Amino acid sequence: MHEQSVIDAVMIGLFVTAACLYGVAVVHSNRRLRAWPRIRVVLFMFGLLFAILSVVVGEHEDFVRHMMSHLLLGMLAPLLLAFSRPLTLMLRALPIRWSRQIMKLMKTKLLRLLMHPIFTGFMNIGGLWLLYTTRIFDMMYEHLWLYLFIHLHLLIAGYLFTVSIIGLESFGKRMSLSLRAIVLLLAMALHGMLAKILYATPPSSVELAKAELGAMVMYYGGDLVDAILIVFLCLEWYKVVRPSSIKREVVG
Q1: Do 184 and 203 meet the contact criterion of CB atoms below 8 Å apart?
Q2: Are 117 and 165 in contact (CB under 8 A)?
Q3: 131: left (phi > 0), else alpha (psi -120 to 50), else beta?
Q4: What is the pLDDT of residues 226-240, one digit of tens each?
C-alpha cells in the first residue's frame, strides 16, 4: 500500500509539474506574441485536474471506480488537453531557432507516422484490448512500475489519438476529414465491443456485479466523450462544405 501511495504521488507530481510548465510557457509567449487565449489555459488546467482526480478515484478492489479513473485519464483529460494546444504553446514560448528545429522534426516521415490517426488509434484502443483481455490487468497491480507505465500510456495515447482526430496540432499535412471520421467510428466500435466483452467475461479477479457496472461506465461514458469529437468533426465538415454551397447558390 505504501508503494502504491508513492506511485500515485509520482503521477500527481508529474501532472502538477506539467501545469507549472504550461503556466511558464504562457507567460513567455505573452511577452512576445498576442496573448494566449485564457480558455485554453482553463482547458489545460481542468484536463490535469481530471488526470489527478483519476489517480484519487482509481482503486483495484472496486472495478467501477477503476473504470471511472480510466475514463478520466484516458479520454476526458486527453480531450481537454488536446483543445488547450500545448504543442503550439511550446513553439510560441521557445526561442525561434528551437521552434524551427522542432517544426522540422514534426514534419519528418517518422513523426508523421506516429501522429497518423490509424497508428494513434491502434496504440489507444489496442492498448485497452491488451490490458483487459490478458493478465496485464492483474499484473498491473502486482508490479507498480507496470502500473505507472500503463497509466501514463493511457494519458499519452489518449492525447495523441485525440490530437490526430481533431487535427488542431498537425504540423505536417493534415489528414483528410473522411479518414479521421472513419478511424473515430472504428475506434468507437472497438471500444464499445470491448465494454460488452468485459460485461460478459470480466478479468478473473473482478466480481461479476462490479464488472457489469464498470463495463456500463466504460460503454456509456466513452460514448459521451466521443460525441464531443463527433460534434467537432461535424463542425469542421460544415465549414468546408458551406462556402462551396453558398458559391453555387450565388452562381446559380
Answers
A1: no
A2: yes
A3: alpha
A4: 999 999 999 988 887
pLDDT digits (tens, 9 = 90+) for 75-87: 999 999 999 999 9
In SS3 terms, the chain reads as CHHHHHHHHHHHHHHHHHHHHHHHHHHHHHHHCCCCCHHHHHHHHHHHHHHHHHHHHCCCCCHHHHHHHHHHHHHHHHHHHHHCCHHHHHHHHCCHHHHHHHHHHHCCHHHHHHCCHHHHHHHHHHHHHHHHCCCHHHHHHHCHHHHHHHHHHHHHHHHHHHHHHHCCCCCCCCCCHHHHHHHHHHHHHHHHHHHHHHHHCCCCCCCHHHHHHHHHHHHHHHHHHHHHHHHHHHHHHHHHHHHHHHHHHHHC
Q: What angle do CA 220, 221, 226 make, to 5 degrees?
A: 95
Percent of the chain residues topping a pLDDT of 70: 91
Each residue of 24-71: pLDDT tens digit?
A: 999 999 988 889 999 999 999 999 999 999 888 766 668 899 999 999
What angle separates helix 144-166 from helix 208-251, to the nearest 10 degrees?
A: 20
Dihedral (Cα; 55, 61, 64, 68), 10-degree rounding: 10
Q: Say how far apart CA 122 and CA 163 lie, in whole Å.
A: 14
Closest CA to 216 of 233, 237, 194: 194
